[in-house]
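Weekly puzzle thread! Below is a chain. First person to post its structure in token form gets bragging rights.
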Amino acid sequence: MSKITVHPLTWIFGAAAAATGLFLEAICVALILFIHELGHAAAARAAGWRIVKIELLPFGGKLETDEHAGRPLVEEWLVVVSGPFMHVPMFIAGVLLHKAGWLDAHLADLLFQLNAFIFLFNLLPVLPLDGGKMVQLLLCALQPYYKAYKQSIFFSFAALSVILAAAAVLLPFYAQLLLTASYIAVQLLVMWKEKEVMFIRFLTARYYDPVSLRLYCLPVLKSDRLLLTVRRFKRNRTHTLQVKNGRNMTEEQLLQSFFGGKKYIREVDENMD
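Winning reply:
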């Protein structure tokens, strides 16, 4: 069952905003982020995803699901882009409400600026922002999942460093910018630390909740290690394994042996009926 939660740091930042006379800005940001996350959630629900919760963070929001990269890439593309897409109707609604006289010029201008800033910020090619997720999905379309996951983190660290260097040269010092960059850097470190866990979740999703995908023939040798073989698995494919001088096997057979403790392809081949 899905639910909406607020990170404790969000309450602290909200209290700080109220204390410094920025309460209206904080409310507007929270509203924009909430609608943004509702876009993600609506697309995920339409695709049949299992939504755990929506969490509002100090510098954004997070939709948590139980899919673990087991769904087709096109579905995740739609879920990812649905968040940024929500900024378009928000902009239109702000213009219409202002023209109808329900929003004064100051509030309408504030909403426009914050909406545009959050939209552009979210498209930065840095995980866990939507722009970074788009880069990761592009890499997943070209590379095996394990390799693409690591590459996307390296790319995000590089992009974050370039953005911070440019900001240090072109912009005055902003404590919020430094805090935001620090938060993103910590999230990237956590993602790197959990890369093996995420990979196992990717494999278990394929084994216990498989989705019919286009077949991809993966040539292997009997001497190949199962771990290195499953690390060649791609997200948007169902694999058949072509064993040199052996019997072909399905992805399900390989994963069953992998989770059963087998180490080499030859062990799977020897135990096939």
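Puzzle host: Confirmed. Bonus trivia for everyone else. The first strand starts at residue 4 and ends at 6.
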